[in-house]
């Protein structure tokens, strides 16, 4: 997948479960990076991208993007968590009323950096920790709501791991704020 867009927004999602409490947060640079999608994927896969400290807890402000210009979007799941993006369903699903025409080139990315379009099977053997897409036609006033579809891999019996499907419900919003 080749992108002509030269600005990329990267967000790392962290999730943790302690007892029966689920906590969600994210790390990200505040401004888009001057990287193409391909450069951003190489940075993340190669360990060159170091996310900032957690800047926001979703309990305070929802996970939202400020896309005032065409942008590449990269969402990663923290390596320290046992979460992975769904590989048997689209890991990003738009809610009713969202204008899907503003977005294109949805891909899952394997740990080796290989991109798999959502319409094709995920070919990686390792868990999918990265999804990418392009915001190609942002406008000054919009909110397109979507969900992430993730699986929590847990051991329900000694030696037997199975996925638990979760929906993470952030928003894409411009001009920003919670939405």
Q: Remind me, CATH topology?
A: Immunoglobulin-like
Number of helices: 1
CATH architecture, by name, is Sandwich
Oligomeric state of shown chains: single chain
CATH class categorisation: Mainly Beta
Secondary-structure blueprint:
Blueprint: E1 8-18, E2 21-27, H1 37-45, E3 56-57, E4 64-65, E5 71-77, E6 83-85, E7 92-94, E8 103-109, E9 115-117, E10 130-135, E11 142-157, E12 160-168, E13 171-174
Parallel strand pairs: 1-5, 4-13
Antiparallel strand pairs: 1-2, 2-3, 5-10, 6-11, 7-11, 8-9, 8-10, 11-12, 11-13
Word description of this protein:
With 179 residues, the protein is mostly beta strands. The chain has a single domain (8-174), classed as Immunoglobulin-like, CATH 2.60.40. The chain has 1 helix and 13 strands. Strands 3-2-1-5-10-8-9 form a 7-stranded mixed beta sheet, with helices on one face. Strand 11 and strand 12 form a beta hairpin. It is globular and about 50 Å long.
What would the keywords be for this entry?
179 residues; mainly beta; Immunoglobulin-like; 7-stranded mixed sheet; 6-stranded mixed sheet; 5% helix; disordered C terminus
Short summary:
The protein is mainly β and 179 residues long. The chain has a single domain (8-174), classed as Immunoglobulin-like.
